[in-house]
Every structure is written in C-alpha cells, then in structure tokens.
Amino acid sequence: MTVTVSGIGHDQDLPDDLVLPFATVRSRVSGRIVRLGSAVNTVLTSHDYPAPVSEALGQAMALTALLGNPLKPGGRLILQTKSDGPLGFLVAHYDAPGKLRGYASFDADGVAALGAKPDQGVLLGKGRLAMTLDPGGSHVSHQGIVALDGGTLTDAAHSYFRQSEQLPTFIRVAVARHFIGRDAEGRQQWRWRAGGLILQHVPAAGGEPRPDETPEERDARLHGDEDDDWVRVRLLASTVEDLELLDPALKPERLLLRLFHEEGVRVTPATPLKAECRCSRERIHGFLRGFSAQELADMREPDGGVTVTCEFCSTKYRFEPGDVG
Prior knowledge:
Layout: E1 3-6, E2 18-24, E3 29-36, H1 38-47, H2 51-68, E4 76-83, E5 89-95, E6 99-105, H3 108-113, H4 120-124, E7 126-134, E8 142-149, H5 153-165, E9 169-182, E10 188-201, H6 215-223, H7 228-237, H8 242-246, H9 252-260, E11 265-267, E12 271-272, E13 274-275, H10 281-288, H11 293-299, E14 306-309, E15 316-319
Parallel strand pairs: 1-9, 6-13
Antiparallel strand pairs: 2-3, 2-11, 2-12, 3-10, 4-5, 4-7, 5-6, 7-8, 9-10, 14-15
C-alpha cells in the first residue's frame, strides 16, 4: 500500500541511501535494514510511471538491495518478474557494492482501470519471479524461480527462501511519496522513498533435548520456523510500521534499538547505495553495430540518424547518419 509521508524534514540532511547489516545478540538472528531516498527517487522520477507501477518498482529495488548486499564487489543480483497482469514485467539490478537501477513494462490502460490504489497481486497477476545471483569472477551464477500467483513481491520473496534456501526469513518493504515542500510558484514537491527490513534465522548449535522429543522434532525446533528465539524476534519485527521504515528522521540504528532492545543488537558498517546505470554512448554504439544494414535502416529517423533510449535510466543517445552503419 502506498502511504504519503509529510512534515518530517528533508532527507538530504540525514543518513540515507544505505543498507545496514546487523545481528541480534540473544537470539542468533541476522538481518539488514535498507533506506532509499535519492537513489529510488532518481530511478522512479526518470520514468514517471503511474503511482502503482512506481510503488512496485520501488519495492523491487528495496528487495534487491536487501538481498544483494552480502555480495562482494563485482557481484550482481537481478530480480525480474514476468506475469499476465497489467504490470507484466519489471526488473531491478543490484551491482555490488551498492549500485541500483530498474525499469518496468506495463499496460497503461490496464493499470489505469485498476484505480489509484490497486491490490498488488491483481496488478502483477500470475506468472513468475526470478532471482539471478552472479557472485562475479569465476563463480557460477545461480537462478531461483518462484511463482507469482496473485500475491505481492514480498510474498514471492518469502516463497523463494522457503523453496530455494530453506531458510526461515522475514521481509517487510514499504514505498511512499515524501512531501518536501513547495517551490517558488507554490507547487507541491514530492520525492519517492523506500525502506525495508529482512531477518534470517541462524541455526542453533546444540541445545538440550525436550522430553519425548524425536531427533527430527528437535532439529525442526532448533533450525526451523519453530525455534523459540526465531519466533520471538519475528514477532518483534512484525510490529514495524511502514512509516518507521520510511521516516528519514528515524535513524536505522534507533529503529533497530526500538524493535530489538531486549535482544541486543550489533551493527556492522553500512553500505552506501546510489542509482547508477551501466549504459554509455560506447556501449550503445557497440550494440548498434550488431545490427544488419536493413535492421539499421528500419531504425533510422527521416534525417538518417538513430536515437536509442536506455530503458533503465531513460537517457537518449543520438547517433548521426555517419555514426553507425
């Protein structure tokens, strides 16, 4: 659900655009919290999508930052959907350490027909969500695919961890437009924000057996969803509100303390995030050289030039008639 955040100060003056890893001391739970201000706003405003599409792409970017953060420099995580709903395709990239980009393809009339605040499951429809993990270097890439079956992106991410990783996981993401004031002509000014929280269970080592407990039951208790510590921390995490994830005046460390003060929390250095596309004039020129003369002829404008628009950042690259072909 999109919420409107207003009256909470200007986010440029506060810590923002970061992923902060942490671990609870008492309960062996690891996690990360993400805050996106300028990074998500840059991507979403460059496309000027309808609000429901922007919200979904903002959620995908928050998820990608949360899940891609452990990658070493040179690694990449790609989150991509393909479905039969009005929002038929979206993709978000995380290039370690901390570069984000994304775009969406949708049926404008179909999105408009759903109203201002459609159910995300209806917006996406049915299809699949794929997560491609490329560690970089000589390491082998891995792709996990889960069904989109009328649920949200977060629902699909939970399914991914249940099926692919078999790791108890809690995920919460939020996206909003942030009112920052009025310009000289009195017009309202808005910026997009996104935030998120992920928790993952760290299996216990040992533990006293309970009376009449089988080895299988003990293993499920210590390593699965029924672990007492995990259940307690998951319940604490579930009390977080969208506004807390988005509020630029609430530092991530303070939010963690608010949620888990009885558990004890240790944080490690945050990773800064920014919107950065990989496109360049040289890359686009090399791409165009791969087309035949006839294919290039079909792309040419009346004066013989070719203009290519990057789907990720909407930058336009103009090539004069003699530049290609």
